[in-house]
Amino acid sequence: MLKCALAVCRKDLKLILARGAGLLQALLLGLLLVFLFSLSLNAGDRLSPQAAAAMFWLASAFCQVLIFNMLYAVEETAQARIGLVLLPAPVQAVWLGKAMAGFLLLTAAQCVFIPSVFVFLGQHLGPGWLPALAGIAFGNAGMAASGSLLGALSVGRSGRESLLSIVLFPLLVPMLLAGVRLASMGLDPEPMMEDASRWLGLAAAFDGLFLAAGLLLFPFVYSGDD
Questions:
Q1: Which listed residue, of 87, 138, 194, 216, carries a Cα 20 to 30 Å from 201's Cα?
Q2: CA-CA distance, 155 to 169, in Å (whole number)?
């Protein structure tokens, strides 16, 4: 299963990076959200760390939706979804491979979003950067697992492109809340470090929930039916 998942991940990354336009659209959307929010600040003003962290995760969430729409549209364009279902491996390998590809693409996009938060929102790196990085890793894992599961719902029929964002965002609220709290610790000059373990525990719990849901439910979601 892992070997097949790595092959799916490698194939998707090659196709997405070769096209480039879709990934660039996701990056520009995230950067546009951060930049437009910075216009509400007066010259010399500094946004609160929690608000800046919220903008970072909002940009990441919208980027995630575009990434997983792209990842699942690849097979729809080439009419290759049936081929993936008929692979000599559990169909969960498709879910895992696309989750891995989405995780890497989202992390790459955040490498652009993070500097933009410092530049446009007037933030500075604080002493809580380690919990913030851990929160980003946990948050990305949960977003990748859930996005890969629900991304299969957004393709195959016309008019379903917006379904991923409608279903996904409410499910991500606890994960995003933990991510915002942890990311704000990396921007706050005096973070409340004693709360870090609690928020990391919440993020890890939702990671486990999304991973279990993906393994159990993906065969029913990604049936390959037209």
A1: 216
A2: 18
